[in-house]
Amino acid sequence: MKIHTTHLTIHPQGPFHFAATAYSHGWVVLLPNRWDAQKQILQRIERLPDGKVVRLTVRGTGTVAQPEIHIAVEHPGTLSAGEQKILLDLVGHMFRVDEAFHDFYELCRRKGGRWEKLGQGLGRLLRSPGLFEDIVKTLCTTNIQWGGTKRMVEGLVEAYGDSFAGDPTHKAFPTAEAIAAVPLEDFSATVRLGYRAEYVYTLARRIVDGELDLRSFWDRAITTPEMKKRLLAVKGVGNYAAATLLMLLGRHDELAVDSVFRQFVAKKYFPNTQPSDAEAQQIYTDWGEWKYLAYWFDVWEGFDEEV
DNA sequence: TTCCAGGGGTAGA
DNA sequence: TCTACCCATGGA
């Protein structure tokens, strides 16, 4: 099949830092994302609504003050204006180009020191184009080491994702329909998700059955505490996952308390003592609605290539 | 072999 | 609301 390439460009409002956003947390290396650290290019397979499967090669150009995001779309056949619009919105969503960070930057400026550098277009944490993918990936980070998360996501993409015709080894993230189409027993036996298999499967099933409308999670009229309740109603989502998902929904007020958080805060702020979760969380109280980002960039400085 | 990870559900107080 | 106990899986 002949593959064509169409070039698209996004003009985010600066400050915006492409590479820092792409490489802002572990999502960048979870399939179908592939990150080339040398070239600072993000590749990803995407399935369009009509089933067409395309490969996106995304790179940052311009400057932090006047940034551009360039997208090369490899696709079979033609790419309609409507499909181009979908892909522009999708990449813009991943990189949070429409999210406002002025208040966060102002807070960082007042904090001073190492926090000030976040004002150079940082603070955006990469997300997936769709919430189904972000919920599933978040479920795959619970009670497991990072290597296990990568293995489980790989398994899901390999087993249920649609292949890109130009490179059949690179597949899209599975749709809820693709997962719900098989019996739970088959799903559990195919991808080794452990007890999480039932959570992922039930989520897919409820979406396909129209029982759960993921669009409702984007309603800005709903308060964050109420939104947290709705997230906790998803089987498999507890306090940690709810806080992570709130961050992915653009709400940064809640801290994701997990083993990494506990170890980091204890080591850095409570030498020789073991703080309770409540005491550990108090470290970030004065960051208000930006607590998640304050913690994340506090801990992220110590991360290296392994993500 | 045992322990436990970027936790969460459930039952019982 | 808080606590024990259980939950698959695979790396350490």
CATH class of the largest domain: Mainly Alpha
Q: Number of folding domains?
A: 3
In the CATH hierarchy, what is the architecture of the largest domain at level 2?
Answer: Orthogonal Bundle
Distance between the termini: 36 Å
Number of strands: 7
CATH topology of the largest domain: Endonuclease III, domain 1
Helix proportion of residues, in percent? 40-55%
Number of helices: 13
Oligomer: single chain
The low-pLDDT segments are none
CATH superfamily of the largest domain: Hypothetical protein, domain 2
How confident overall, as mean pLDDT? 95
List keywords for this structure.
globular; Endonuclease III, domain 1; 40% helix; 307 residues; alpha+beta; two-stranded antiparallel sheet; DNA-binding; 5-stranded antiparallel beta sheet
Topology record:
Blueprint: E1 3-10, H1 18-22, E2 34-36, E3 41-47, E4 53-62, E5 67-76, H2 81-94, H3 102-111, H4 131-139, H5 146-160, E6 163-164, E7 167-171, H6 176-180, H7 184-190, H8 196-208, H9 224-232, H10 239-248, H11 259-269, H12 277-282, H13 291-300
The chain binds a DNA duplex (13 and 12 nucleotides) through residues 26, 138, 141-149, 151-152, 188, 192-197, 199, 235-241, 244, 256, 258-261.
Plain-language structure description:
By secondary structure, the protein is α+β, with helices and mostly antiparallel strands. The protein folds into three domains: 3-119, Alpha-D-Glucose-1,6-Bisphosphate, Chain A, domain 4 (2-Layer Sandwich); 131-248, Hypothetical protein, domain 2 (Endonuclease III, domain 1, Orthogonal Bundle); 259-300, no CATH class. The chain is built from 13 helices and seven strands. It has helices spanning 18-22, 81-94, 102-111, 131-139, 146-160, 176-180, 184-190, 196-208, 224-232, 239-248, 259-269, 277-282, 291-300, and strands at 3-10, 34-36, 41-47, 53-62, 67-76, 163-164, 167-171. Strands 1-5-4-3-2 form a five-stranded antiparallel sheet. The two termini are 36 Å apart. The mean pLDDT is 95. It binds a DNA duplex (13 and 12 nucleotides) through residues 26, 138, 141-149, 151-152, 188, 192-197, 199, 235-241, 244, 256, 258-261.
